[in-house]
Hints:
The protein has 555 residues and is α/β, with parallel strands linked by helices. The chain contains 17 helices and 27 strands.
Amino acid sequence: MNSQHKLPLDMIYHWETAKAESIYMTQPMGDGKVIDYTWRRAVGEARRMAAYLVSLNLPPQSRIGIMSKNCAHWIMSDWAIWMAGHVSVPLYPTLNADTVNYILDHAGCEVLFVGKLDDWDSMKSGVPDSVQCIAYPLSPPTDFKTWDDLVTKFPPLENNVERDPKDMATIVYTSGSTGRPKGVVLSFGNLAFASAGGTEALDVSSNERMLSYLPLSHVFERFVVELGSMNKGFHLFFADSLDTFVDDLKRAQPTLFLAVPRIWIKFQHGVFQKMPRDKLARLLKVPLLNRVIKKKVLTNLGLQHVRFAGSGSAPLAHDILDWYRSLGLELLEGYGMSENFAYSHMTKPGRARTGYVGEALPGVEVKISDQGEILVKSPATMVGYYKDEGKTRDTFTDDGFLKTGDKGEVDALGRLKITGRIKEIFKTSKGKYIAPAPIENKLMSHPDIEMVCVSGANYTQPHCLVMLSEEAHEKLADDQYRQTLEQSFSSLLEDVNGTVDPHEQLKFMAVVRDEWSIENDFLTPTMKLKRNVVEDAYKVDLDEWYASNKRVIWQ
Length: 555
């Protein structure tokens, strides 16, 4: 890779003239209406907002928050903050007021962009009166200054502001699966390196189309979608709402598509509702029908033009990966974390190995410690944690490698396999250690299971807690369905137990009534399980469940 990479602002100045009248972003405004932003207009509005931010006379590198679901204004705000000489601080649009307040206070944010939010009423008490707020066109009703008024009032910054590669560009707060979020400091050099390496690895061109709907406050979406589109100048589309997602997808007709495992599972369930799994498998084996069926399934999903599809943020069950590949969809997995701007490993097209998350991206060094921990180093690795030198020190080895907290192994071709989280590994009362993630992946292959938590510290054998899919949950009132499901789960347990070591065999499966969600604090804003919260919620029942000797338990 070239040692000199275009910095984020240099990228957008280039497209502002090179593709001035080309459409960069397509933004739904509700009721089927969309607005197209050309490169000239998008950069122009960012320049005007930057002029307003400069007028506030804030100290250099002041922190400015962005709290919104994905939209064109989110990206333009990021640019404006950088042009004005400041640091962007994304906040997840699903946070509660307490976490909003913690992040704004910890980062010292003086300004906050407030955009598309589903539950602003439960968040707004977390915003101190001292923070000046700016509302996007799609924000909830407020009395804040508005984006449109400000970009109308202020003339654009005329000069091309340059930022040093070592300057702080953004503080990304981790999703907080284990306590308070940590502020990951990333420089412009970090972002530039990741952007160049990611687009090079996938041979991304300026003709791509992507739908942006996973949170831009998460590094995965920001690395691939925001920085990728800025690097190559391709067309971004945004989703309006969950209800319009299929229409949004069909409007975009993406050539690159990212999703988290839950979405890939929901897509698959939707296909099976229209055509049972066994029937589809039989039709795909008929040579004359194979190509037609594949095309029809992908077209119905809006994915018929996808060159590469990615899955990240959590492992995807092997059989689901294989199923998508059987449809001709090159489903690539990636691995990374906030601390390296999600720039670490990616499956290379044609070199996938089921169960592995791919090879190190260009410029990434990787090694496995004596304890089995994955250690990585690259120019995309964070500067450190904001206001926390001690935690920063603890997160790096003496020779500068980032401690990921994940256990793993590397095969002869350099492909990485994640074998568990060091902190998630627990010990049974027999003194045996168990990594829950690989067992959970096996259980997730069942079409009626939405989420799984394997646990059992200090018990003789582990167990699993299961949350059903929405469709399965709705059918539970039917006794016949429930009996059939119980038999299916019992068979699943037997199958899974036949593939693991004796000390890893599950004693029982408990099907819980609760929905594990962000709102009730069972999940992080990135849909990761808060394992300690889940375990605490059911520990009062465990002794009784173990004593019952039942294979499948209904809470």
